[in-house]
Amino acid sequence: MNIDILLKYFPGLTEQQKERFAALDGLYRDWNAKINVISRQDIDALYEKHILHSLSIAKIVQFKPGTEVLDVGTGGGFPGIPLAILYPLADFHLVDSIGKKIKVVQEIADALGLTNVKAEQARVEQLNTSYDFIVSRAVTRLKPFLGWVRYKIHKSGNNDRPNGVLYLKGGDLSEELAEVPDRYRVYDLSDYFDEPFFETKKVIYVPKK
Ligand SMILES: C[S@@+](CC[C@H](N)C(=O)[O-])C[C@H]1O[C@@H](n2cnc3c(N)ncnc32)[C@H](O)[C@@H]1O
Question: Gene Ontology terms, cellular component aspect (predicted)?
Answer without folding.
Answer: cytosol
